[in-house]
Design goal:
With 425 residues, the chain is an alpha/beta fold. The chain has helices spanning 2-6, 22-26, 32-45, 81-98, 123-136, 156-165, 179-185, 191-203, 221-233, 251-256, 264-280, 333-336, 350-363, 380-386, 403-407, 409-423; strands spanning 30-31, 52-58, 60-61, 73-74, 108-115, 144-149, 169-175, 207-214, 238-243, 284-287, 290-292, 309-313, 318-321, 324-328, 342-347, 366-368, 390-392, 398-401. The protein starts with a helix and ends with a helix.
């Protein structure tokens, strides 16, 4: 209640949105071929031996879940040959990137496989992709290999196979452990099966993080907290909390389920309750949507904070090199185009480049006093503290993002950019 009261006359909770990438705000400056030329030139002109992160997008799923708002494509058994076409295109793109000067020599901090459901690919196809990546880039025993999955794929044998490939971290799309809600949104594994599979994955030594959605049809605060409690009790290392998003890809399904018009106040209360519970169980925010125990380093989310370039591969994947941001074509255009099949690219403005470290601190939940005392942030620290968006951190001179801050992160970034423009930073 105190956080709610702190927002009065300052912010509107109904504006809870994810921060949008630069290309989505301003459009592309270059089409795909020109974007590739820009990236290649920057890599040639700014040869560096510094580390980088990799993101690999696999768009396929067993079937499309009605509630899902992501770019994913069901891969029926009758069309399994498409995964070989996709793997060929993805490996061809990897080869093209590694042909650029010294790129293949740069140490890789983390390799994150997102989707879709990456391990829905046949084991042989997934091994081919992993092998091409491992053989082309400078990964090491210290590289964190992470993969997004559902529990449907996580048999003990499959988990052992993933571990043998080098994966050490799993993001598992749990969404809810209420069996009624799970049936409603098309999840097939029951609560008990989900918990058993997560225990078995952790017993094999993998770090396991659970994705949870709040605002699902029929979800109450009670069954949301019960889901978190059951997962915390089995020792899950991290949680990502996402509000149910309504878009053209899931609108019809959600309207049939009675969830086509989200209630912002209801979802705000759900998120507040979830954050309060997780903090009470010892989980700490290391991204505005993610809570973790110390074992869950969540390296992919922090590549900007480490000052690393992000090499992204695969359909709809977004990457960044030296202030130049690019995006890939969607599937199936990705497999039909000549590598690297980019949709377009855009360069950061001087203002965006200046604010990048501060925005990264906000999004990773820990802000330094130094970042908020320049002309670009005049008066913002006082406002944000008064509105309970930031609270003093454990280390002197630092601040942590509160539940209010996570909920209003996009508005905070918007205010930061406005102040920077006014000050002429």
């Amino acid at each position: 209640m105190s956080q709610w009261r702190a927002l009065e006359n300052w912010f509107t909770i109904g504006e809870h949105t994810f921060p949008r990438p630069v290309w989505a705000q301003r459009g592309f400056e270059h089409d795909g071929p020109h974007a590739w030329a820009q990236i290649a030139q920057r890599i040639r002109d700014h040869v560096t031996s510094g580390p980088m992160s990799l993101y690999i997008h696999i768009p396929f799923c067993e079937r499309r879940c009605g509630f899902c708002d992501l770019f994913s494509h069901p891969l029926p058994r009758s069309q399994r040959q498409l995964e070989h076409v996709f793997a060929e295109a993805l490996c061809r793109e990897m080869d093209l990137w590694t042909s650029l000067p010294r790129l293949a020599e740069r140490p890789v901090t983390t390799v994150h496989f997102g989707g879709g459901t990456p391990n829905y690919l046949s084991p042989a196809v997934l091994r081919r992709i992993v092998g091409t990546c491992r053989g082309g880039f400078n990964e090491s025993p210290q590289t964190e290999w992470a993969l997004e999955s559902t529990t449907r794929q996580l048999s003990p044998e499959h988990v052992a196979d993933l571990k043998a490939m080098g994966f050490s971290r799993l993001h598992v799309g749990v969404q809810s452990l209420d069996d009624g809600i799970r049936r409603r949104i098309g999840r097939r594994d029951t609560r008990d099966v989900v918990l058993t599979k997560l225990r078995e994955a952790m017993a094999q030594g993998l770090v396991v993080s659970a994705d949870i959605i709040y605002g699902l049809p029929g979800q109450s605060g009670k069954n949301l907290i019960q889901t978190l409690e059951l997962l915390a009790d089995v020792g899950v290392h991290g949680f990502s909390l996402y509000q149910l998003q309504v878009c053209d890809r899931n609108r019809a399904f959600l309207e049939r389920a009675g969830a086509g018009r989200p209630n912002p106040l209801h979802n705000y209360v759900l998120y507040q309750a979830a954050e309060h519970y997780l903090r009470g169980r010892g989980y700490r925010k290391n991204f505005f949507t993610h809570f973790a125990l110390p074992q869950d380093r969540c390296l992919y989310y922090h590549h900007v904070s480490r000052g690393e370039d992000l090499l992204a591969l695969g359909p709809t994947a977004d990457g960044a090199f030296n202030g130049y941001l690019y995006r890939h074509l969607n599937h199936p255009a990705y497999t039909q185009a000549r590598a690297p099949a980019l949709e377009g690219g855009v360069e950061e403005t001087p203002l965006e480049r200046t604010l990048r470290p501060v925005v990264a601190e906000l999004m990773t939940g820990a802000v330094t006093m130094e970042s908020l005392t320049g002309p670009h942030a005049t008066g913002l620290l006082d406002v944000w503290r008064a509105c309970a968006l930031l609270t003093p951190g454990e280390c002197p001179g630092t601040f942590e993002l509160t539940a209010n801050g996570s909920w209003l992160i996009t508005q905070m970034i918007r205010q930061l950019r406005h102040e920077a423009r006014v000050s002429g930073t």
